[in-house]
Write a sequence for this structure.
């Protein structure tokens, strides 16, 4: 079955069936990354352009590896070395790239809505690799896959997201994705970092870490974006850590089998203590491994057999 959308702009466009199909496809593709020769011919002759206007370690690399493991040609372009640095606008950049007949554009941009804008001006499928504080759908999908790997199911699980919910595209995508999959979401952080009225989305709110992690099946810790301190939203990092850093001591309030995830990059000792990060309950590197499988699944479902000759 093809996905219900030709581009992956955000989790709001994906149905429960789409998400299940992406997770199942990723599961079946994982094995390729464990082979001696990590390559299949599935996307031979396809061209993928990664267009990144923001720094990235995990997302950019895993989209590149995913494309290459499926034999696609992958071209990486960063904002600072593209002609946008000479004043070309984003739409012109994308239209010029499209004139070279790529099969898919993967876009990360600091402006919320940039991938959606491009989708209105180019006909190639677009995958949003993170736009401003809006969405980061492939991150939410790899988070779901990691949780499902360890719990065996998603429906009915409670996930507590800790940190800067207001500015987090990871939180926004995960809240949508988790609710679509029948999971319960709780958010924890200081009032300045929690969107006003988020309860109306069916999300529970707590400003107390110990209370917020109680009974949770999964704790997702978010990176504290250091620039928020300059905006006056945090009085100091030390104060934030005193109240919201996930430590072994705070974890005594949580379930023994709680899973801990973090999208990265991590500020060690600010939002998560080093020993917690390195503990067996932490799945941070499993998330990174699953990132490759999820991105392979997205390429396969958008470009593979199902879509190569849709008519
Ligand atoms: N999780 C994530 O988006 O990490 P990068 O910024 O390194 O891609």
């Amino acid at each position: 079955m093809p996905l219900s959308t030709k581009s992956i702009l955000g989790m709001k466009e994906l149905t429960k069936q789409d998400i299940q199909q992406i997770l199942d496809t990723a599961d079946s593709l994982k094995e390729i990354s464990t082979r001696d020769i990590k390559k299949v011919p599935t996307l031979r002759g396809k061209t993928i352009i990664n267009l990144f206007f923001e720094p990235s370690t995990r997302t950019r690399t895993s989209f590149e590896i995913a494309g290459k493991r499926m034999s696609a040609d992958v071209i990486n372009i960063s904002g600072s070395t593209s002609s946008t640095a000479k004043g070309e606008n984003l739409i012109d950049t994308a239209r010029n790239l499209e004139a070279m007949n790529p099969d898919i554009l993967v876009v990360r941009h600091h402006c919320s809505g940039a991938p959606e804008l491009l989708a209105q001006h180019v006909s190639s499928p677009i995958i949003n690799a993170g736009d401003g504080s809006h969405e980061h759908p492939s991150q939410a999908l790899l988070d779901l896959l990691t949780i499902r790997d360890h719990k065996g199911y998603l429906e009915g699980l409670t996930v507590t997201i800790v940190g800067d919910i207001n500015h987090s595209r990871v939180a926004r995508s995960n809240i949508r994705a988790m609710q679509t999959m029948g999971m319960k979401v709780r958010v924890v952080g200081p009032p300045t970092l929690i969107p006003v009225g988020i309860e109306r989305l069916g999300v529970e709110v707590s400003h107390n870490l110990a209370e917020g992690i109680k009974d949770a099946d999964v704790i997702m810790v978010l990176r504290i974006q250091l620039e928020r301190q300059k905006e006056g939203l945090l009085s100091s990092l030390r104060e934030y850590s005193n109240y919201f850093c996930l430590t072994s001591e705070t974890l005594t309030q949580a379930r023994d089998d709680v899973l801990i995830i973090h999208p990265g990059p991590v500020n060690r000792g600010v939002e998560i203590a080093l020993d917690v990060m390195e503990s067996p309950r932490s799945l941070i590197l499993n998330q990174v491994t699953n990132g490759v499988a999820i991105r392979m699944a997205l390429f396969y479902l958008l470009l593979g057999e199902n879509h190569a000759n849709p008519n």
User: Anything to note?
Assistant: Residues 56-59, 130, 139, 263-265 surround phosphoric acid mono(formamide)ester (CB under 6 Å). The chain is about 40% helix and 15% strand. The domain at 11-135+290-303 is CATH 3.40.50.1370 (Rossmann fold).
